[in-house]
Amino acid sequence: MKKIYFLLSISTLLAISSCKKNEDLITPPTPTIPVTPPTPYVIDNSFKIVAYFPSYRDPSGIADSKYKMITHLFYAFLNPNFDGTLATLEQPTRFATVIQKAKANGVKTGISVSGTKSIFVTMAASTSARELFIKNVLAFARTNNLDGVDMDWEYPSTADGSADNYVLLMKSLSDSLHKYNKFLSAAITPGVYAGSIRDGLKSEVFPSVDFFNIMVYDGIGWDKDQPIQHASYNMAVASLNYWIGTRGMPKEKAVLGIPAYGKNTANASKAYRDFVAANADISLDYATIDGVQYFYNGTLTTKKKAKLAKDTANGLMFWEFYHDDNGEKSIIRAANDELGRNYN
Predict the structure, then answer these.
(1) Which domain holds residue 132?
(2) What number of other Cβ atoms are within 10 A of residue 203's Cβ?
(3) Is the dihedral of CA 166, 148, 296, 216 positive or negative?
(4) Is 36 among the domain residues?
(5) Among 304, 237, 303, 227, which residue's Cα sits nearest to residue 264?
(6) Domain for residue 128, yes or no?
(7) Residue 130 is part of a domain; what is its CATH number?
(8) Pairing of strands 292-295, 286-289
(9) Average pLDDT, stretch 157-175?
(10) Closest C-alpha to 165, from 151, 147, 144
C-alpha cells in the first residue's frame, strides 16, 4: 500500500512539473503600443487682418502698438530659383525682428514667396523642380517656426499653360504644409479684368488654399465714376462679387486688399503716411503734395471697405505695413475701429 502511495506521489509530482514546464514555454503576447495619430489640420475661419512687411523697410519705422491691429504678418519676399531651390533671404536680421515682434503680440507669421513670372512658370512645369521647391519652402517655414506660407505668383495664366501647373503646385504645397499644421494663402488678381490672367486662377485651387489676399488696387481707369482712383470702393465690390458670387470662392477664404498708398495720374506712388505728414484731410481720398494730386483710400473709404469685408468676405489685407501712419490717423486703426476690434 505504501508502495502504491509512493508511486502515486511520484506521478503527481511529474504531472505538476510537466505543467510548469509547459507554462514556462508559453510566450506572453506582445503589448500593443497605442500610436497617437497626427492632429488633423483644421482651417482657421476667423476674420483676418493681414499686413505685408517688405524686406527693404526698417522695422523701427513701425510702432510696436501697430502689431496689435493685425492678425497675420507676411515677410516679403522669399524668392525661388528655376530649379526649385530658394534664393538667400534678403535682410534676415529684419526678418527675425519683425517675426519676433509679431509673435510677441499674438500675430500669426508667414513668409511670402514671390519672384519673376518666368521663374514660377518654369519651376512649376517641372515635377522635380516643383517637388524640390515645396520641400524647401516647407523646411523654411518649419525651421523658422512660421505659421504659414503666402504664394505671390503674379500671375498664373491660361495663355502660357501655367494655370494647370499652378493648381498642381498649390495642392501639393498645401498638403505638405497642412501635415505640419501650417496654413497656405495666396495673393491674387482683383478679377475685375477679363482675360487669361483672371482665368489663370482656376476654381480647382480653392479647396487647397486657406485664404486668398485679393489685391484690389492699382486699377487706374477701371472705375468710370472715379477714373483716377486706383482702388475705389466700387472696385472692391466688383472684385468680391466676381470671386465669391461668380466664381464660387467660399466667402470664408476671401480677404479684401486695401492699399496703404496713393497714386497720381502718372502712376507714381506715395505712402499714406506721407499724406498724414502733409496735413492732408485723411477723411478724403485725395491730396495734393508738391503740386501733384494723389488718390488713395482715406479713413472713411477704409471703414466702408472694412464693413464690406465683414458683411460679404472674411478679412482685410494691407499692402503694406510700413506705408501706414503710426498715429491716430492710421487707416489700419480706422479699419479696426469699424470692426470693433480691441487693439490695446
Answers:
(1) 48-261+298-339
(2) 11
(3) positive
(4) no
(5) 227
(6) yes
(7) 3.20.20.80
(8) antiparallel
(9) 97
(10) 151
Closest C-alpha to 281, from 294, 270, 268, 290: 294
Residue 5 has pLDDT above 80, yes or no: no
Structural domains of the chain, count: 1
Residue 21 lies in a domain: no
Helix axes 127-143, 117-125, angle to 10 degrees: 110
Instruction: Give the number of other CB atoms < 10 A from CB of residue 36.
Output: 5
Any domain includes 18: no
Q: Which residue is associated with the grid cell 494655370?
A: 163
Within 61-108, where are the H helices? 92-104
CB 192 within 8 A of CB 234: no
Residue 212: phi and psi, rounded to 5, are -115, 125
Instruction: Compute the half-sphere exposure of residue 174: CA atoms within 13 Å on the CB side of its CA.
Output: 19
State the pLDDT at residue 95: 98
- Residue 299 near residue 271, CB atoms below 8 Å: no
pTM of the model: 0.89
Three-state SS for 12? Answer: helix
